[in-house]
Write a structure and sequence with these properties.
5 helices; single chain; binds fe (ii) ion; Four Helix Bundle (Hemerythrin (Met), subunit A)
Length: 129
Amino acid sequence: MPLLEWTDRLSIGIKGIDEQHKTLVNMINKAYEATSWPDSRKECARLLERMRDYAMEHFTAEEYLMKGVDYPDLEAHKAEHQLFIDQLLSLTADGEEVTPEEIFAFLREWLVTHIMGTDAKLSPYFKDS
Ligand SMILES: [Fe+2]
Ligand SMILES: [Fe+2]
């Protein structure tokens, strides 16, 4: 059984965005699983690749939708997205191998602070839209 299950409490009311958030939950579960593997290097490399793709696709999509509704906190929200990208880069910047524990901690923190905090504030703008 995965560590985390998607729940509708995480939904912000836009199917495409929710689907992308589900892939992030899936990445958290994969990282957690990999913490018990004897050799998780390939999985970590795959996860880092997926995190880069996620940042590119998902942040672009979310920011586009926010612009469409004149979301008042767009700039602050974009700054958090940029922080994810910066932190992702710094994870790999020192040339050291990234551990599944590091990826797990990073993504779990993102889920709690950004998706359940910052993204959740988008919900009233899109629910029932
Ligand atoms: Fe966001
Ligand atoms: Fe998001």
